[in-house]
Design brief:
The chain is an alpha+beta fold. It is rod-shaped and about 90 Å long. Strand 2 and strand 3 form a beta hairpin. Helix 1 crosses helix 3.
């Protein structure tokens, strides 16, 4: 599992090399994927890129003077697709829980009302 910063960087790299070919990218373009308070931190970028490269998410052909030639590997693209699918699943589960809770509340209120009506009519 990747942290948020590294996952955003991987997503940016996937967008840049969507066709699977190597792309030449400047450091500033990669740094733009980081949150505003971390933007401009080259050490974090190098650490994240090394992590992605070590775990076979991306391949870096060369990195010189703030210019990178890199490519997203199939495992990196699969990670982003899986993460996006999981986010959709979480949304659907929350929606289902809310809907079932509303139905349960309605049924419980109706049943309570019926019991109250029966008791009041018997007395």
């Amino acid at each position: 599992m990747l942290d948020k910063r590294t996952a955003r960087l991987l997503k940016k790299i996937n967008e840049l090399s969507a066709d699977g070919a190597y792309k030449v990218v400047e450091e500033e373009e990669l740094l733009s994927s980081f949150p505003a308070h971390e933007e401009g931190n080259e050490a974090l970028l190098h650490h994240s890129l090394n992590y992605l490269c070590d775990h076979k998410y991306v391949e870096i052909k060369y990195a010189e003077n703030g210019v990178y030639c890199l490519c997203s590997l199939p495992e990196g693209r699969a990670y982003c697709e899986t993460e996006q699918k999981e986010r959709g699943d979480v949304f659907r589960r929350r929606r289902d829980i809310i809907a079932l809770s509303a139905v349960g509340a309605f049924v419980g209120g109706f049943a309570g009302g019926m019991v109250a009506w029966l008791i009041s009519s018997l007395l």
